[in-house]
Amino acid sequence: MPSSTPSQNFDVVLIGAGIMSSTLGTLIKQVEPGWTIGLFENLQEAGLESSSPWNNAGTGHSALCELNYSAAGPDGSVNPAKAIGINEQFQITRQFYAHMVEQQHIGAAKSFINPLQHMSFVLGDKHSDYLKTRFEALAPNPLFESIEHTEDLSVIEKWAPLVARGRDGSQRVAASRVVGGTDVDFGSLTRQLTSHIGENGVELNFGHKVTTLNRTSTGWEIMVKDNATKAKRTVNAKFVFVGAGGGALGLLQKAGIPEIKGFGGFPVSGQFLRCTDEEIINQHNAKVYGQASVGAPPMSVPHLDTRFVNGKRSLMFGPYAGFSTNFLKTSSLLDLPLSIRPHNIIPMLAVAKDNMSLTTYLIKEVLKSRGKKDEALREYFPEATGDKWELITAGQRVQVIKKDAKKGGVLQFGTEVITSSDGTISGLLGASPGASTATPIMLELLERCFPKQFAGWKPKLTELIPSYGSTLNDNPALLAEVTAATNKVLDLA
């Protein structure tokens, strides 16, 4: 609930109540408990847009099964560096969760994180050869030492029965898995973190939309509209974080910082099939990721995915990509055209020209019938029948378009932190791997925006994250120690 006596001046203003803002607010309250913080969220509750498990955010992304983080190179080899880096980031996130649970700042671990095997599954000779190469590249690394690989369908049936049953035994298949993966309900976690900071002095304002950002001599003047009463109020902040998901691009453009010039956004929507049969749901205990179709964006990688949402076990398959011009599930269809500026039109046109395969893919996805969607499901669950699955609409993702000296513009599928030169405003664009790497991303933001204070914060940050500053893949003993401690607190052992 909003404070009964709203403040007009803050040290920090957080725009958006997703996992990024709630993580940043929590970290700041840990290192600077005396700072005043105001949070403004357009919706009536935290974690309802990109952080909702029904809006794509549902996997503890640690590169254990997501093949786009360890793609084959032109010569067929696999460089494990990106996968290692993402796994390192998630280890930081896990330690942060463990600290919050251990200190009883949030609820029991089971309320937001559960152990779940992560598995990659592919069909055919080419993909099977690739998956074996990937396994051989990852296995020597301490972060992936428990990875297993097989082409034996009977073994795959033990790992994930629904994937193997009814499958043609003459077709070559391959699977890799790591038992020690997790499923994270980021919606639940976001709400718990937001409640925690609200109980510790952060002014929470739900149903409040930020409409304008103007630079002042001491920071930023922010115009906020109360959606219920239509009343407007102006607040001031020394530092602003724009964690508004798809809404971040427009707000950073309104702020007028030079650093946002050349950036645009490409929205991609999606749908999932959600199982309605409890007997089927209870037979699958894994996140099974496959290979993306030619031309498909990385977030459209098909997966048969166990999730725990608000404590209830569920099973989903998808996503089926679509296209809509709004940048948030709850925002306007005018978002895309209104985001066009003289400084980003060339990058956006260049991306349109160079990504015809993506356009073709999206058109095919939009036109795909329910029967075709069921056929895609049966590639991963051969015995599936469509009558036991309901079609749900997932969230919006806005992929980053940025200027490029050679091509004019490129489409980027990762995340991009935009920070003003004076460090008084910062925002996050992009989506993947997103929520799972919120903690390291916010730590990097703190270091970038508060360089004078950061050195003094390191002892506290190391208390929160024991391995902070170390590379776990290069320190197997520390990795084992941290993993054991974290698993115990998070009940993942």
TrEMBL record:
Superkingdom, natural source: Bacteria
Annotated keywords: FAD, Flavoprotein, Oxidoreductase, Tricarboxylic acid cycle
Enzyme Commission code: 1.1.5.4
Catalytic activity field: (S)-malate + a quinone = a quinol + oxaloacetate
Matches recorded under SUPFAM superfamilies: FAD/NAD(P)-binding domain (SSF51905)
GO molecular function: (S)-2-hydroxyglutarate dehydrogenase activity; L-malate dehydrogenase (quinone) activity
Keyword set includes Oxidoreductase: yes
InterPro entries assigned to the protein according to its UniProt record, in alphabetical order: FAD/NAD-bd_sf, MQO
Name the record gives this protein: Probable malate:quinone oxidoreductase
Species name: Paeniglutamicibacter cryotolerans
